[in-house]
Design goal:
Radius of gyration: 26 Å
Order of helices and strands: HHHHHHHHHHH
Largest sheet: none
Number of domains: 3
Number of helices: 11
Distance between the termini: 91 Å
Length: 231
């Protein structure tokens, strides 16, 4: 009886090892490495795969790093998948992005320049949509989502005709840079106003609600908070 159990265990280990060699995250390590991983199948089968957490910027970054560490051979594909989904959100939500601009997002081999990923992450609206869309996804879900996003991007490029003459086409990089600048200006303005409101609130708390506020104090606070002079 014990011999049969050991035999069944080894057969299952061989199945897990063979599957890992051809389809698993460690296929680059060779057959015998994956066979060793297969021997630990009782642990592996009950081990939960890392999921992306979109509850906050920090949680998303940590979960993305955790997924990359869990699947080191897939790290580039993971980053590429996140970028592809982000580009789809950008193009789909901005109707001014025409077919030529969408096609310009891709390099000749059908990929997206990595330099565009970090720019997208700095645009608050896109970042929030990206976190919501990828929240709770495991690796396979993420890769499938990226493939769907790529197909929809290319379909979108066909549906949106070029709105400008070829020599006047603005590249997706330039359009994205404009969106990034607008986002940064909006964030700076919002943080500056919050800074000014906080200084005014502190003054009211210390001096009383009816205490007069001098013009030079207002200008000083606005300058400290990065706001332009009041008119």
């Amino acid at each position: 009886m014990k011999g049969k159990l050991i035999g069944v265990y080894l057969v299952i280990s061989l199945i897990f090892g063979t599957w890992g060699h051809f389809f698993g995250p460690y296929q680059h390590r060779g057959f015998f490495y994956n066979l060793g991983v297969g021997v630990t199948w009782p642990i592996t089968i009950f081990k939960s795969d890392p999921e992306l957490d979109g509850s906050s910027d920090q949680a998303f970054a940590l979960s993305l790093n955790e997924m990359s560490r869990a699947y080191p051979a897939q790290a580039l594909r993971i980053n590429y998948a996140v970028g592809m989904v982000a580009m789809h959100i950008h193009a789909e939500s901005d109707e001014s992005v025409d077919g030529d601009q969408i096609r310009s997002m891709f390099t000749p081999d059908g990929k997206i320049p990595e330099s565009m990923f970090s720019d997208i992450w700095q645009i608050h609206r896109l970042k929030e949509e990206l976190k919501d869309r990828l929240d709770g996804m495991e690796l396979d879900d993420l890769l499938d989502e990226a493939e769907e996003a790529k197909e929809e991007l290319l379909e979108l490029a066909e549906k949106r005709p070029a709105r400008q003459k070829p020599e006047q086409v603005v590249s997706a990089n330039a359009a994205l840079a404009t969106a990034l600048l607008a986002s940064n200006n909006e964030a700076t303005s919002q943080s500056g106003e919050a800074c000014y409101d906080a200084k005014l609130a502190d003054f009211r708390t210390e001096m009383g609600e009816d205490a007069p506020v001098r013009y030079d104090m207002i200008e000083e606070w606005r300058g400290e908070c990065g706001l332009p002079p009041s008119e």
